[in-house]
Structure formats: C-alpha cells, structure tokens
Amino acid sequence: MRYPGNHAGLTNTDLMMPILLRGEQLKHLYDREEMWLHNLYTSIP
Q1: For residue 39, what is the DSSP state?
Q2: Which of 18, 36, 37, 41 has its CA 20 to 30 A from that of 11?
Q3: Are the C-beta atoms of 3 and 24 separated by less than 8 Å?
Q4: What is the pLDDT of residues 5-44, one digit of tens each?
Q5: pLDDT at 5
Q6: DSSP result, the chain
Q7: Closest CA relative to residue 44, chosen from 12, 28, 32
Q8: Using CA atoms, how far apart are residues 17 and 15, in angstroms rounded to an integer?
Q9: b/e for 9-26, b at 16 or more Cβ within 10 A?
Q10: Is residue 21 within 8 Å of 30, Cβ to Cβ?
Q11: Burial of 29 (0-12, 13-18, 19+ CB in 10 A)
Q12: What count of Cα atoms within 13 Å lies in the side-chain half-sphere of residue 20?
C-alpha cells in the first residue's frame, strides 16, 4: 500500500487535544481555550 507524501485533507484542528491543568502556578492558564504546545512549555514557571 502506498501513502501519499502530502497532508491532503488534514486540517489545523485534526491534531488538537485537551490539556488538563492543575496547580497554583498554572492558574494564569485556566481561561485559555487553546494554545500551541511550545507556548505551554514556556508558560510553566
């Protein structure tokens, strides 16, 4: 079986997943509905 080498049909929401946050140091992120993963890493003190 051959697979195409492109991202045909893949949208920006296909790779979204929930992130569960808990703790005093993460309260500033509680109201966020979405964020890039690399921004999450830099937002954690």
Answers
A1: H
A2: 41
A3: no
A4: 666 777 777 777 788 888 888 888 888 888 887 887 888 7
A5: 61
A6: ----SS-TT--TTTT-------SGGGGGGTT-S---HHHHHHH--
A7: 28
A8: 7
A9: eeeeeeeeeeeeeeeeeb
A10: yes
A11: middle
A12: 0
What span, in angstroms and rounded, lies between the C-alpha atoms of 3 and 21?
37
Rounded to the nearest 5°, which phi and psi values hold at 20? -95, 125
What pLDDT, on the 0 to 100 scale, is given for residue 2?
65
Closest CA to 45 of 20, 27, 19: 27
For 10, the token pair is 């893949």
What per-residue confidence (pLDDT) applies to 1?
A: 55
| Backbone dihedral angles phi then psi of residue 17, each to the nearest 5 degrees | -145, 155
